[in-house]
Amino acid sequence: MTINEIDRALADRASGDPASESDVRVEVATQWQLMWWKFRKHKLAMFGGALVLFFYLLAIFVEFFAPVNYTTYNEQYVYAPPQMIHFFREGKFGPYVYGYKFERDPVSFKKTWVIDESVIIPLRFLNRGDSYKFWGLFNANLHLVGPVNAEDPFYLLGADKSGRDVFSRIIYSARISLTVGLVGVFLSLTIGILVGGISGLVGGRVDNLIQRLIEILISIPNLPIMLALAAMVPLTWSTLSVYFMITIILSLLGWMGMARVVRSKFLALREEDFIMAAQLDGVPRVRMITKHMLPSFLSHIIASITLSIPGMILGETALSFLGLGLRPPVVSWGVMLQDTQKVAVLANSPWLLFPAVAVIIVVLALNFLGDGLRDAADPYQ
User: Fold this and answer.
1) Each residue of 304-322: pLDDT tens digit?
2) 36-58: per-residue pLDDT in tens?
3) Could you tell me the domains of the chain?
4) Whole-prediction pTM value?
5) Where are the alpha helices (DSSP H) in the chain?
6) SS (H, E, C) 337-360
7) Distance between CA 351 and CA 336 in Å, rounded?
8) How far, in Å, CA of 341 to CA of 339, rounded?
9) Do the beta carbons of residue 98 and residue 116 sit within 8 Å?
10) Is the model's pLDDT at 180 over the cut of 50?
11) How confident is the model over 168-195, as a mean pLDDT?
């Protein structure tokens, strides 16, 4: 658009012409503004982004959102079924759930719990309940919702084999499962950018050597390597050590794709004038990568990160489900799903599969968000 055309469009804008105002807005918009406008058109990506934000807020404030601590148990209510919250009673707002009554199966004579609609358990929002230390900083006992009487049973998604609240444990698991994905992606991103940057920037024999190494690593099936590395983690290690080892294992198996993307971008960028000028000025290669080349395709990196996190979450869930990842007393979605390995337990207590539902929702939301970011990364297409 020429200067005269811009002046004409600005004059039309002053006269209230909406079409011309839109044209000028696009012409003077920054790269990030164009990306945001294109991203907003992707409805599934907007919905996925809202879900991802919700789950990460949940992970930050798990102690507040969970009705009880993930270790709190009541052996009296083993495998108690889920309770549904009712918000109105006798035409007035008053949240409550129905209680339980004990029944014995006439065939197997097993003890079972069923919902008893004659028993009303009143609930209170912003309820005082189990004490906790928020992020290890200060003591509190405020929860989003809970029973008025702390002795009353409250199991929104049922109870497990020890009488622990499945809903609270799913919320606590979000902190572990979601942060494993973030830390793992950060490590694999760092390795991929450095290796791919050196490969694309240096070229020659170094590039050939790195690419052959990547091809060899990609050709090895991930699952057997993942299982073998996880099985090498000693049982005597602390929870924190196992957590970091699992993230390192996932990172070592996930950096190759990022390295190839970075290499292809660097091969295109190293012929640009601003890169050649930086080389002539004697800029070190690490600084050239971080300060000159990476910002040129930062949007693509953001999209790649979003699409890589689901793989990390699924990897941790699979390892923990198989007993080779995180172990009790740590609680993650994979650790919780270990209880579903027995068909008899799953048939009688299907609510133990709710952690899998959480995994599916988060993975789908991250994929929707990543697709939207990938499309918005190049707003000119």
Assistant:
1) 788 788 888 888 888 888 7
2) 888 888 889 999 999 999 999 99
3) 70-164 (no CATH), 170-376 (1.10.3720.10)
4) 0.81
5) 3-14, 18-27, 31-40, 43-60, 62-65, 166-202, 204-219, 222-231, 239-252, 256-269, 273-280, 285-287, 298-321, 333-336, 343-348, 354-376
6) HHHHHCHHHHHHCHHHHHHHHHHH
7) 11
8) 6
9) yes
10) yes
11) 87
CA-CA distance, 328 to 366, in Å (whole number)?
A: 27
- 202 CA to centre of own chain: 35
The helix-helix angle for 298-321 and 239-252 (nearest 10°) equals 130
Across 17-26, 151-160, 176-185, 242-251, least confident range: 17-26
For residue 95, whether the previous peptide bond is cis, meaning omega lies within 30 degrees of 0, is no
Instruction: Report yes or no: 330 and 240 within 8 Å, Cβ to Cβ.
Output: no
Angle between helix 298-321 and helix 222-231 axes, rounded to 10 deg = 60
d(CA 71, CA 162): 10
What 8-state DSSP symbol labels residue 61?
Answer: T
Q: Does the pLDDT of residue 285 top 70, yes or no? A: yes
Q: What tokens were used for 191? A: 């390795």
CB atoms closer than 10 angstroms to residue 262:
28
CB neighbours of 69 closer than 8 A, spacing ≥ 6?
63, 130, 132, 168
In angstroms, what CA-CA distances link 362 with 58, 208, 233, 287, 320?
Answer: 12, 38, 28, 36, 17
- Please report how the helices 18-27 and 3-14 are oriented relative to each other, as an axis angle in degrees rounded to 10: 140
Kindly state the tokens that stand for 31. Answer: 């790269």
Question: What DSSP state is assigned to residue 153?
Answer: -
Q: 115: buried, middle or exposed (CB in 10 Å: 19+, 13-18, 0-12)?
A: middle
Q: Which residues of 331-352 are buried (b: 16+ CB within 10 A; e: fewer)?
A: bbbbbbbbbbeeeeeeeebebb
